[in-house]
Batch of 4 targets.
Target 1
Amino acid sequence: MITAKQIRELLQARPFRPFRICMSDDTHYDITNHDMAFVGKNTVEIGLNLDPDGFAEYFARCSILHITKLEDLQETVSH
């Protein structure tokens, strides 16, 4: 079972390592920087469709009970 504390630890890790949140309905969310998600006791708010300045167009609210796994993502270098 995934916990809020586990997700928060991934977001606060230094250096930050991108990761994927996999949901029970087979959707997933790629967390590419530590500012993309906010962890609550029972939910994670994930910013989506980020603009070049990192501002989210909208948010997905994910129940932590429905998170099935957390996966590391390969880091990409953008130029």
Target 2
Amino acid sequence: MSTGLDAIQEMLPQLSPGEKAQLLQWVARDLGGTTPGIDKTPGVCGGEARVMRTRIPVWTLEQARRLGVSEATLLASYPTLAAEDLGNAWNYVRLNAAEIERAIAENED
């Protein structure tokens, strides 16, 4: 008798690296409501959500996106970022819209 895990194990080698990364994000989110690649540390960036291992707040990236800055321009402006980091940030924004709205409003003043 095959289980769901058996089916996943059979399919795993057929997935592309991007699909495997997406699968990991779904599992991580399901396990703890966290967003991979995004961190909050008291005393760093005011405790705001930021791209892991950087001091780039998620709200900053989202505000730039709203102002029409392209992902290519963001990646060129922040050389330490990878496309995956932007994907993680956009996912965080989607899951935490009220928090990001508050951060943008507080930092516009």
Target 3
Amino acid sequence: MITEAILKINPNAEVSVIGSDINTCEINWLNGTTPISKADIKAQFSAVEFDMVMQDLRFKRNNLLAQTDYLALSDQTMTAEMTAYRQALRDITNGLTTVEEVEAVVFPEKPEA
């Protein structure tokens, strides 16, 4: 998470991190990368955690959509229920702003094809 927090502050940073605890880790700034304070890095942890849970949610959502993609082909007629299900999946990330909201997401139930 430390490296991800650093890259959130400076996407071009070149760095190596030894250890996983921000208080005791060793951070080596490479190729002239301007060092960032550990306090500033730590301040990004909640944003990094949110990005990680959103990435996981999108991965699960995309897999569920992929399972029904064949129904969206031009030679198929999708039911209204399936159309609504797929739209609910696409909208599932809308308005989420906290890790707790993401973790509380309940996926819609897949209708019969």
Target 4
Amino acid sequence: MAQLEYLKELKDVPDTDTPTLRRVRQSKTYPLWRVSHPYRSGIAIRLIVWFPPEKPPVVVLFANDKAVMGDVFYDSVGARADQIIDAYLRSEGGESV
């Protein structure tokens, strides 16, 4: 819940990494960000977020056990997020990239 609250309180689209919000370097089509929490042994929850122009942020992926998945999660995050964002844009009547 704290991660969602953090996103809700953002005033602008980020332009630099912070301890809580970092760019997903593996994204190809859309700029993605990951929201992370303070370190807890054995737990790694990630929200992958896209900031559409002039709209609230959209959570496009959620990893509830990234600690076990490791880098496999990030290896495919860009392709999976692109598909979800394209579907979101179609559902909103917009065009995907």
